[in-house]
């Protein structure tokens, strides 16, 4: 039975584990519980079709992710997960300029040709906009797209993990460290003969090598803790095989390890002699409780002309966001006065009706980005048994479930649903 370990339990890792649970593989999900995980903070808008981004590779992922939600949530519901956090409520893309509204409508009509899930497209005047979302300011027209949706990232993640556990996936909490065998055995020799294919066949004075590299000694001294420090003729060995992970001091072997660690991925890959070029952006997201807003769970998501957004959930819960903070540390999960000023200033200008809302909480998360703001997915070059995806950025909830499925197919040796050349992992890697 194939053993597969998924490191990272955000929406991407949860999806990978859930889809792997449909196979006969033995699957483990490692949850680091990092403060600031993107999924914990996110309240997502599933509406990629109105984006002005010209990168077709990005749009292919986003479109595939939006389309996949209907299939995924239906399957989860059939397995007993009634709360997936997903609701197809439509979207209002706002503007005050009629020309911009017409351009949005044309773009949506064009993209509906190969994405019928967009649904109905219509232009709304100010009165119609206010009727659908009463808290908004005057002056906005909108393009309404009926196929858009909102999703609660925490609820979706929890639903996938719950279903995966019922299917036999084990979940452990703790920081994972990769366990590796350095160097390709076909390139190594002893007395001029290549070493056997499997490390278990290598012997010292007739005895098999110990199970863990830490037990191997040289001249009576243990080898360094991390195999990246082991050298051959003065050169670091930066290729090999990942054999599993160590969590809380316990070693777990695996045939495949899938890294879904978001902003923390570089820390995991650094001991392999790699620099994973993942940057991150801090977002602070405001949650409000509005009094007396019956039917708010059916209100459409709001996409204004600036970089903010507004979502309504059941029972008057509103989510407004978010900040886009660069040059921050992963330890900086503070809610700041400046961040809240930005969100409230823009949020109240967009929707003055929010002024009567009661502050419930502020969530903080780090959106991971890879070079060119294009996600990467695939096998890590030079390292057998190691697969990763990263860089989903602000589209993590749109793309994450779909990409998690692709990761599961890679780990099982199956063909993914999309060509991966455009998203090659090496584009985000540098040797240290």
UniProtKB/TrEMBL annotation:
<keyword id="KW-0560">Oxidoreductase</keyword>
<dbReference type="InterPro" id="IPR006076">
    <property type="entry name" value="FAD-dep_OxRdtase"/>
</dbReference>
<comment type="similarity">
    <text>Belongs to the DadA oxidoreductase family.</text>
</comment>
<protein>
    <submittedName>
        <fullName>Oxidoreductase YurR</fullName>
    </submittedName>
</protein>
<feature type="domain" description="FAD dependent oxidoreductase">
    <location>
        <begin position="237"/>
        <end position="410"/>
    </location>
</feature>
<feature type="domain" description="FAD dependent oxidoreductase">
    <location>
        <begin position="3"/>
        <end position="185"/>
    </location>
</feature>
<dbReference type="Pfam" id="PF01266">
    <property type="entry name" value="DAO"/>
</dbReference>
<dbReference type="InterPro" id="IPR036188">
    <property type="entry name" value="FAD/NAD-bd_sf"/>
</dbReference>
<keyword id="KW-0285">Flavoprotein</keyword>
């Amino acid at each position: 039975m194939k053993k597969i370990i998924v490191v990272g339990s955000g929406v991407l890792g949860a999806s990978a584990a859930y889809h792997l649970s449909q196979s006969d593989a033995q699957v483990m999900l490692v949850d680091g519980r990092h403060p600031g995980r993107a999924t914990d903070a996110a309240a997502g808008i599933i509406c990629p079709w109105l984006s002005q981004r010209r990168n077709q590779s990005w749009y292919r992922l986003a479109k595939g992710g939006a389309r996949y939600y209907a299939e995924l949530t239906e399957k989860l519901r059939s397995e007993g997960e009634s709360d997936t956090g997903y609701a197809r409520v439509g979207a209002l893309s706002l503007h005050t300029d009629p020309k911009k509204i017409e351009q949005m409508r044309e773009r949506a009509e064009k993209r509906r040709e190969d994405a019928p899930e967009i649904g109905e497209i219509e232009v709304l005047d100010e009165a119609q906009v206010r009727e659908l979302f009463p808290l908004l300011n005057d002056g906005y027209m909108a393009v309404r797209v009926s196929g858009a949706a909102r999703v609660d990232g925490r609820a979706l993640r929890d639903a996938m993990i719950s279903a995966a556990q019922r299917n036999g996936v084990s979940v452990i909490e703790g920081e994972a460290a990769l366990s590796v065998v350095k160097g390709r055995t076909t390139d190594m020799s002893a007395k001029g003969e290549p070493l056997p294919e499997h490390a278990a066949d290598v012997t010292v004075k007739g005895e098999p090598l110990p199970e863990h590299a830490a037990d191997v000694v040289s001249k009576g001294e243990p080898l360094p803790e991390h195999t990246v420090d082991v050298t051959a003729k003065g050169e670091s060995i930066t290729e090999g095989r990942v054999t599993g992970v160590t969590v809380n001091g316990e070693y777990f072997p695996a045939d495949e390890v899938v890294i879904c660690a978001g902003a923390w991925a570089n820390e995991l890959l650094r001991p392999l002699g790699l620099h994973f070029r993942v940057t991150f952006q801090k977002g602070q997201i405001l949650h409000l409780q509005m009094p007396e807003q019956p039917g708010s769970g059916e209100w459409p998501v709001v996409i204004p002309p600036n970089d903010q957004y507004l979502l309504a959930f059941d029972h008057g819960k509103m989510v407004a966001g978010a900040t886009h903070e660069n040059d921050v540390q992963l330890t900086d999960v503070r809610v700041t006065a400046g961040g809240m000023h930005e969100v409230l200033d823009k949020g109240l200008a967009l929707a003055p009706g929010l002024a009567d809302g009661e502050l419930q909480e502020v969530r903080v998360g780090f959106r991971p980005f890879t070079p060119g703001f294009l996600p990467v997915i695939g096998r890590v070059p030079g390292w057998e048994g190691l697969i990763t995806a990263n860089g989903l950025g602000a589209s993590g909830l749109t793309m994450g479930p779909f990409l998690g499925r692709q990761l599961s197919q890679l780990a099982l040796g199956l063909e993914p649903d999309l060509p991966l050349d455009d998203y090659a992992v090496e584009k985000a890697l540098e040797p240290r």
